[in-house]
Amino acid sequence: MAEVAMTFSVLPEDTDSSMEDLIKRLRAKMEGKAKVVETSVQEIGFGLKKIKMVVIVKDQDGQQDMIEELASSVDGVGQVDFEDASLV
C-alpha cells in the first residue's frame, strides 16, 4: 500500500508554551499510528510560533482526520491545520 506525507501546522494554546515539550508530546501521541518524519518551530510574528509537522501515513481514507484528532488531543495544542499531502 502506498504512503502519504502530510504536513500540518500546530499552534500552541499559550504563547509561553515550551515548543520542545509540545513536540515530544505530539511525537508520543503519534507513535504506532503515524511516523513523524520532521518537526520544526517557525516564527509567525509578534512572538507567536507554530510547529510544522510532517507525518507519513498509509494512503487510505480518514488519515488526515485521525492525525488532526490525535494532535488536537495533546495537552497544550490550541489548533491543528492541514497544509499539504503528497504520495511518497
Describe how the helices and strands are arranged.
Elements lengths: L2 E10 L6 H12 L4 E11 L2 E11 L4 H10 L4 E11 L1
Antiparallel strand pairs: 1-3, 1-4, 2-3
Please sum up the structure shown.
The longest helix is centred in the first third of the chain and has 12 residues, at 19-30. The chain is of the alpha+beta class and 88 residues long. The protein is built from 2 helices and 4 strands.
Could you describe the 3D structure shown?
With 88 residues, the protein is of the alpha+beta class. It has one domain (3-80): Ribosomal protein S6/Translation elongation factor EF1B (Alpha-Beta Plaits). Helix content is 25%, strand content 49%. The protein has helices at 19-30, 63-72, and strands spanning 3-12, 35-45, 48-58, 77-87. It has a four-stranded antiparallel β-sheet, covered by helices on one side. Strand 2 and strand 3 form a beta hairpin. It is globular. The relative contact order is 0.37. The mean pLDDT is 95.
Main features:
88 residues; alpha+beta; Alpha-Beta Plaits; 4-stranded antiparallel sheet; 2 helices; 4 strands
Mean pLDDT comes to 95
Strand line-up across the major sheet: 2-3-1-4
Secondary structure tally: strands: 4
Q: Whole-Å distance between the termini?
A: 11 Å
**Secondary-structure arrangement, i.e. CATH architecture:** 2-Layer Sandwich
Largest sheet, in brief, is:
4 strands, antiparallel
Helix/strand-derived category reads alpha+beta
Give the CATH level 1 class.
Alpha Beta
CATH superfamily: Ribosomal protein S6/Translation elongation factor EF1B
SSE run: EHEEHE
Tally of DSSP helical segments = 2
CATH topology: Alpha-Beta Plaits
Based on CA atoms alone, the radius of gyration comes out at: 13 Å
Low-confidence stretches: none
The global form is globular
Beta-strand content estimate: over 45%
The level of helicity is 25-40%
How many discrete domains? Answer: 1
